Amino acid sequence: MKLKPLGDRIVIKMAEAEETTKSGIVLAGSAKEKPQFAYVIEVGPGGRDDKGNLVPMEVKAGDKVIISKYSGTEVKVEGEEYLVVRQNDILCIVE
């Protein structure tokens, strides 16, 4: 099954949370901070402005991005967890 986002929505896969600190301390599952880095899996065609003109997407599949905390909708497909966000929830592209 493949997810195909509509409008200005984007399917992303969150990066794995760090399991150890820089000093080598292993973190428990509850102590791990939710990562804000994600990888773009699939991109919708773009949204529409007030006049109905298509607003193109600024990200593409494969981009590494930083997203707002607590944004998007979590979905699970074939055992994999994804997040569906709007383009406005993406803060920047990591180059």
List keywords for this structure.
mainly beta; 95 residues; two-stranded antiparallel ribbon
Q: How would you concisely characterize the structure shown here?
A:
The protein has no helices and eight strands. With 95 residues, the protein is mainly beta.
Walk me through what this model shows.
The chain is mainly β and 95 residues long. Helix content is 0%, strand content 40%. The chain is built from no helices and eight strands. It has strands at 9-14, 37-43, 47-48, 54-55, 64-67, 73-77, 80-86, 90-94. It is globular, with a radius of gyration of 15 Å.
How many beta-strand runs? 8
Q: What is the overall pLDDT average?
A: 85
Q: Uncertain runs with pLDDT below 50, 5 residues or more?
A: none
Strand-and-helix sequence, N→C? EEEEEEEE
Give the CA-based shape: globular
| Residues in helices, as a percent range | under 10%
Topology:
Layout: E1 9-14, E2 37-43, E3 47-48, E4 54-55, E5 64-67, E6 73-77, E7 80-86, E8 90-94
Antiparallel strand pairs: 1-2, 1-7, 2-5, 3-4, 5-8, 6-7
